Amino acid sequence: MRKLCVVHLFSLPRVQSFRPIRECEVSKLIDRISESSGRGPFDMSEAMRSLTTAIICRVAFGTSYDDERSVARFQSLLNETQAMFTSFFVADHFPLLGFVDRLSGLNRRLEKNFEEFDAFYQEIIDHHLDPNRSKTEQDEDILDVLLQIKEDPSYKIRLTFDHIKALLMTDSSAATVIWTMTYLVKNPGVMAKAQREVRELIGKKGFVNEEDMQQLAYLKAVIKESMRLQPTAPLLVPRESTEDCRLGGYEIPAKTIVYVNIWAIGRDPETWGENPEEFRPERFMENSSIDVKGADFELIPFGAGRRMCPAMHMGLANVELSLANLLYAFDWGMPDGMKNEDLDMDVQPGVAMHKKNPLRLVATKWVL
């Protein structure tokens, strides 16, 4: 399954083929913020969730699923899934007391969410299998690729519709953008430096394209620093030891569940110096060889090795393009009566580290 994701779904050429979708949706977001400029605080958290959902719908399901009703339905299902992730299931900790989850209604709520997601995905699959599907909808999306593989007898893994539904994905890039914007507002000097870099490069062109990103070294450092301090998943997917081993003086028996705490790794003073809690992107300018792609174990927001996140390229592309255009197009500030230092950093409990309270900022259109 991992090979399927890496080779067919999220390879760099495949991710690049979706560039027009990303640029189109980010452009819509910039227009939406421009229209609300001067009308009070703008809810960045809601806007980034909507952007990410729209991109996912178009990339995974095709152009017919960029209508507002489908996007809203998908977002609602994702929100409920996130709520279930943050719920406390007694059976996870005390298996013999699993009946408590049934009595509380949590089990039924989880089953209902699964059933609704299953029905949503089945509708999309049925649409893609429709022989009368319009030719204007034939741009190949991720679901098209999966359906082709399912019918390919030469492929070693026999895909079923259940496999396909499980592979239709979500994305954590919205959380990364929100945390990065939060850090930038709390550190106006860093924000000004990042904006200056983007605006000097782009000038009066009006929009940051993906080919511009390679020249935005400081912005990339800002993103790395945000991922270091606030990885969207503080713990990597758990692993199981296959044999007895000794690590750092600890004896680890075979079949032990092991969690990698990347939140703690990113704040380790032995690696990051005396002030690891400080938001200072310059540390990545001083040591630009450190990257997020799994080769540098001090910074592994996507994991490392054969089990690292296969959608890394997709997620990074979404984050970089969104942030570059947000910083290029607008100056950002706090609502009236609030200071930058008043901005909270509270985290919503759960598998992913989302900001607990919505990020509401005042956007002022930058005059070219």
UniProtKB/TrEMBL annotation:
<keyword id="KW-0472">Membrane</keyword>
<dbReference type="Pfam" id="PF00067">
    <property type="entry name" value="p450"/>
</dbReference>
<dbReference type="InterPro" id="IPR001128">
    <property type="entry name" value="Cyt_P450"/>
</dbReference>
<keyword id="KW-1133">Transmembrane helix</keyword>
<keyword id="KW-0812">Transmembrane</keyword>
<dbReference type="GO" id="GO:0005506">
    <property type="term" value="F:iron ion binding"/>
</dbReference>
<dbReference type="GO" id="GO:0016020">
    <property type="term" value="C:membrane"/>
</dbReference>
<keyword id="KW-0503">Monooxygenase</keyword>
<dbReference type="InterPro" id="IPR002401">
    <property type="entry name" value="Cyt_P450_E_grp-I"/>
</dbReference>
<dbReference type="GO" id="GO:0020037">
    <property type="term" value="F:heme binding"/>
</dbReference>
<keyword id="KW-0479">Metal-binding</keyword>
<dbReference type="GO" id="GO:0004497">
    <property type="term" value="F:monooxygenase activity"/>
</dbReference>
<protein>
    <recommendedName>
        <fullName>Cytochrome P450</fullName>
    </recommendedName>
</protein>
<keyword id="KW-0349">Heme</keyword>
<feature type="binding site" description="axial binding residue">
    <location>
        <position position="309"/>
    </location>
    <ligand>
        <name>heme</name>
    </ligand>
</feature>
<dbReference type="InterPro" id="IPR036396">
    <property type="entry name" value="Cyt_P450_sf"/>
</dbReference>
<keyword id="KW-0408">Iron</keyword>
<dbReference type="GO" id="GO:0016705">
    <property type="term" value="F:oxidoreductase activity, acting on paired donors, with incorporation or reduction of molecular oxygen"/>
</dbReference>
<dbReference type="InterPro" id="IPR017972">
    <property type="entry name" value="Cyt_P450_CS"/>
</dbReference>
<comment type="similarity">
    <text>Belongs to the cytochrome P450 family.</text>
</comment>
<keyword id="KW-0560">Oxidoreductase</keyword>
